[in-house]
Amino acid sequence: MKTMTCNQLGGACELEFHAETFEEMVEKSKNHGMEMFQKGDKPHLQAMNEMREMMQRPGAVTEWFELKKEQFEAL
Q1: What is the pLDDT, as a whole number, of residue 68?
Q2: Cα separation of 47 and 57, whole Å?
Q3: 19, 15, 21: which is closest to 33 by C-alpha?
């Protein structure tokens, strides 16, 4: 079982996610992000805006995803 925080995954808080696989970790982070979006949490909304901006750059999302996966695997 590995642990990463919301912040480590591009979010805005120190909530910890625990998962066996990177895909499971991403899913937990995504669900947390949707919950924070629904609550209108400003720090998380800002983090989401930054992610949206990154998505505009070709290849940036793939690069970011691979970096986070490497960090997960290194745990």
Answers
A1: 96
A2: 16
A3: 15
At residue 55 the predicted structure's pLDDT band, cuts being 50, 70 and 90, is confident
The residue type of 73 is E
Please name which of 26, 25, 20, 27 lies closest in space to residue 1, comparing C-alpha atoms: 20
3-class SS at 2? strand
Percent of the chain with pLDDT over 70: 100
Encode 18-32: b = buried (16+ Cβ within 10 Å), e = exposed. ebeebeebbebbeeb
Helix (H, G, I), strand (E, B) or coil at 58: coil
The secondary structure element, H or E, covering residue 4 is strand 2-5
Q: Is the pTM of this model over 0.85?
A: yes
pLDDT at 3 over 90: yes
Q: How far is CA 27 from the centre of its chain?
A: 9
